[in-house]
Design goal:
The protein contains seven helices and 19 strands. It is mostly beta strands. The longest helix has 14 residues. The N terminus is likely disordered.
């Protein structure tokens, strides 16, 4: 009996613990908020809070990857109390002035989406890559439709893994597969339109400034490491910091959003006024609990579905169009070849392993 108890205690000690890790800037040791942590299985473990903290409750999640725009990714083989991120460098091309006769900007982007879901004892992963196109203007332009500012994808790669009853399976989901319900790219991703102005405190030399909401910080501005970043907490005005959108209930989805945030990062400039030409990357994060009958049926589970999605959106080309060219290009639904920004960060090792495995075992049809 003593041996059994000892074995159980050793197992619990190795696999279940609550470690509070703090992610900091390697240059000045300041906390890094909004860093995403991905576990050894490829599951999203969460994001750091405003103090740079995150709790990792299971030693089996290691090695983990810590990612945050403005910093190089960090892989950790084991738990550390303080994880130090090294600032990354970003260089954009020269600013191009939009000619009056070509008032519409076509913005082509590369995007990554990391999705994970848990239903009882089952786990699901969905990783997607997109090429998207959007159309923006600096002001009102006759014939332009504002909805075209939303990223619309023109190419996609999907990779999926399901662990159910101890069995592991992989696939390349298509758009109408149930597993793609983990994806919230269409709901979350957007490009900055118009100008984003730095607040007065930052113009006077402060590193950060914030705007309060009813129940937390609504907007956080930060100028550091040659980046200006605006981060929003979409739950800052929701009581109990939860939101159950009524429009999801209309389609049989009862969804409780528990975390919702986005960040827009720009290459910093002396004017402290930022637009699409300064845009480096957008990140978007949502964590929710799905309790609707439709979701439970889609995933074959009687339990609620805990879902988390993290998106990175990078511009790779911006060109000006006439209104006629814009209308013609908008209706062209042909595929855009995959392209990547020079400063694209490498994949988390656990996701790279999944991608390589699926590319090897399920090659794309020519």
């Amino acid at each position: 009996m003593r041996q059994i108890v000892l074995i159980v205690m050793i197992f619990v000690g190795c696999c279940a613990y609550a470690g509070n890790m703090t992610v900091v800037d390697d240059a000045d040791s300041s906390p890094v908020a909004g860093a995403t942590v991905i576990g050894s299985s490829g599951m999203i473990l969460g994001r750091t809070d405003s103090y740079g903290r995150i709790q990792i409750s299971d030693s089996r999640d290691f090695p983990v990857t810590v990612r945050c725009i403005g910093y190089e990714p960090l892989s950790l083989a084991e738990f550390v109390e303080s994880a130090r991120l090294v600032p990354a460098s970003y260089e954009l091309g020269e600013l191009v002035v939009s000619p009056a006769d070509r008032p519409v900007m076509q913005v082509v982007c590369f995007a990554r989406e990391y999705c994970s879901g848990i239903t009882g004892s089952d786990t699901m992963q969905l990783y997607c890559e997109y090429m998207t196109v959007s159309y923006l203007t600096d002001g009102k332009v006759k014939g332009y439709k504002e909805n075209d500012a939303r990223p619309s994808y023109r190419n996609v790669r999907r990779y999926a893994r399901i662990t159910k009853d101890g069995r592991d399976s992989i696939s390349r989901p298509v758009y109408d597969d149930d597993l793609t319900q983990l994806s919230w790219f269409d709901f979350m991703a957007f490009l900055p339109t118009g100008k984003t102005e730095a607040p007065e405190a930052i113009r006077k030399g402060a590193e950060s400034d914030s705007v309060p909401g009813k129940y937390g910080t609504q907007f956080l501005y930060r100028k550091k490491n040659n980046l200006f970043t605006k981060t929003a907490d979409v739950l800052s005005n929701h009581k109990d910091r939860k939101w159950s959108p009524w429009f999801f209930k209309l389609i049989g989805m009862t969804v409780d959003i528990e975390v919702g945030s986005w960040s827009l990062s720009f290459s910093s400039n002396p004017s402290d006024s930022y637009g699409i030409r300064d845009f480096v990357c957008g990140t978007y994060n949502i964590r929710m609990l799905g309790r609707g009958k439709w979701l439970k049926k889609a995933f074959g589970s009687k339990h609620p579905i805990a879902m988390e999605t993290y998106v990175e959106l990078y511009p790779v080309e911006i060109r000006n169009c006439t209104v006629a060219e814009y209308k013609e290009a908008r209706d062209d639904l042909s595929k855009i070849p995959f392209r990547y920004p020079d400063y694209l960060q490498p994949l988390a090792p656990s996701i790279k392993t999944l991608v390589d495995r699926i590319d090897r075992d399920i090659p794309l049809k020519k």
